[in-house]
What we know:
Layout: E1 8-10, H1 12-16, E2 25-28, E3 33-36, E4 45-46, E5 63-66, E6 70-72, E7 76-77, E8 82-85, E9 89-91, E10 95-97, E11 99-102, E12 105-108, E13 112-114, E14 118-120, E15 122-125, E16 128-131, E17 135-137, E18 141-142, E19 145-148, E20 196-201, E21 211-214, E22 220-222, E23 231-235, E24 241-243, E25 252-265, E26 274-279, E27 282-285, E28 296-298, E29 307-313
Parallel strand pairs: 1-2, 5-8, 6-9, 7-10, 8-11, 9-12, 10-13, 11-14, 12-15, 13-16, 14-17, 15-18, 16-19, 20-24
Antiparallel strand pairs: 2-3, 3-4, 20-25, 21-22, 21-23, 23-25, 25-29, 26-27, 26-28, 28-29
Amino acid sequence: MATQVQFRRGSTAQNDAFTGAVGELTVDTSLYVLRIHDSVTPGGVATVGLSSTQTLTNKTITSLTLSGNVTGTANISSLTGFISASGNITSTANIAGGNLVTAGLITATGNITSTANVAGGNLVTAGLITATGNITATANVAGGNLVTAGQLFVNSGNNVTAIVNNAANGVGNIGSSGTYFNTVFAKATTAQYADLAELYVSDADYAPGTVVSFGGEHEITITTVSSDARIAGVVSTNPSYLMNSGQQGTFVLPLALTGKVPTRVTGNIAKGDMIISAGNGMAMSCATPTIGTVIGKSLEDFSGSTGVINVVVGRL
């Protein structure tokens, strides 16, 4: 039988009440852990044991895999390592790692950051979700910003509406005139507004509905004559599709090329009448227009000196 060396031992309560000498070891028989003492701290410092509670302060973890939850009230960070759990990854501060992977919930009141992939059932944060790899969720993704150097996949559940605007109607753009996407591949599109327009450089800022012609100091100017053969069209009010977004100039106006557009008119007009210029930026009805002067056809009846009606431009 080998010789046994026994240290001071006792229950957790007994250990907590004991202050040992520097380097002295005691045994916690309740938790089956060793206590290392420093002559100052009551109970000493518990080492890793079967039932002991440990902190990760000043400890380096290169890989962490749990079958339960990863929870913290400070930062949870494995730097370039791997954080994986079959339960939840939760922090009241930041979560950061090489890979953040769980079938459950990843949630933080700070940022969720990964140098590789972020994948979970739900990804929820009031801050930033960023990854140099993929951001993947089998349920919801919610954050202040979602940033990835990889691809963002949506609608694996084949929902009718794949991307939902969670703000008010008409709020929020996809891309911008300065930072835009390339080709958009889609089966069909719909829009609330009616006309197709293109940006042109004008010699002044004209109100929507103004009839303009090709000419002036730049590309377009207000029409000043009736039956103008240089007619360009009508300044759009709300184009559904706007082309030539990169056009530069002091006055750049959307010119309706086809579709329904509010137009300044004068005189008696019946629905279906052909519309030509009347001068002073307005339009009027004409039964026998000459080639190249027709703006479109009236969609409304009108009688008066001036007003605004819908005209279907591009119709002869």
